[in-house]
Specification:
- Helices cover 36% and strands 14% of the residues.
- β5, α9 and β6 form a beta-alpha-beta unit.
- α5 packs across α7.
- The N and C termini lie far apart (61 Å).
């Protein structure tokens, strides 16, 4: 290899030995590994897919493989989420390993590959079998308050919804709903506080008036209070809209 002279450098240094080149190469490799890892995100074994087949079998999947699947009709879920106002409820599975780890990581670590993996799992387990005419017009991600967005740097539900939109070819409606008030994380509240939210928590755009079928997307549903509050806000401006609630997992009381 011919030595390459760097501008401002007094001597000749082979490119591979140059510290700047080495730094750039490491950063590029880190970015590639971050976006396209060559190992399972959950168990770290070598895998050509983001989630290996072994970890997929470990999912506590609800197995929603038929056209009319609707978790809100299951007695245990209907009892746990009595105030959920939605035409249909879909989720990959229960909030336990490995879904709980996947969701926690995509929520608190800035790694888009986890959101991509979650979107692929949701598509495969929940909507891949549905015909185009049964799918919603848009996906609407649960928003977070602008201060929390500033602190965290990203909205995990919106990020996952974008990946899901690319896979399913359902557009994501951005900026249509906003969270007006900053609230404490649900994990810091007791069961009663989780079910009680301030009124007018969300503002809704007039754009939703003209739609007839949407999917509200969230990462995990525990009491259903947050997603129900958003559904009520949407119904106020469009009482006839059909809302499906899509989430990655549902945390049932016995868990």
């Amino acid at each position: 290899m011919q030595p390459i002279r760097l501008i401002g450098h007094k001597g000749y240094v082979p490119l591979k030995q140059n510290p700047l080149f080495s730094h750039i190469r490491k950063r590029m490799q880190s970015t590639v590994d971050k976006l396209i890892p060559n190992q399972c995100l959950l168990c770290s074994v070598h895998s050509e897919t983001l989630i290996c087949s072994i970890c997929e079998t470990e999912l506590s999947s609800f197995k929603l493989t038929h056209q009319g699947a609707n978790l809100s009709l299951r007695p245990d879920i209907a009892k746990a989420l009595p105030k959920l106002q939605a035409y249909k409820l879909l989720a990959i599975g229960s909030h336990k390993w490995p879904l709980d780890y996947l969701i926690s990581t995509l929520k608190y670590r800035d790694k888009p590959c986890y959101a991509s993996a979650a979107a692929q799992l949701f598509y495969k387990n929940c909507i891949q079998h549905r015909t185009p005419e049964t799918l919603p017009q848009f996906i609407v991600a649960i928003p977070i308050h602008f201060f929390k967005l500033w602190l965290r740097g990203f909205n995990q539900s919106a990020r996952t919804a974008k990946f899901l939109g690319d896979i399913s070819e359902i557009p994501v409606l951005e900026g249509a709903v906003k969270k007006r008030k900053f609230t404490r994380p649900q994990v810091t509240k007791n069961a009663t506080a989780r079910r009680t939210l301030e009124p007018d928590l969300f503002s809704v755009s007039e754009r939703l008036k003209e739609l007839h079928h949407i999917a509200v997307f969230d990462d995990v549903i525990t009491t259903g209070a947050t997603v129900s509050a958003l559904c009520r806000a949407i119904f106020k401006i469009n009482p006839n809209i059909r809302i499906e609630v899509w989430c990655l997992s549902i945390s049932l009381p016995h868990q």
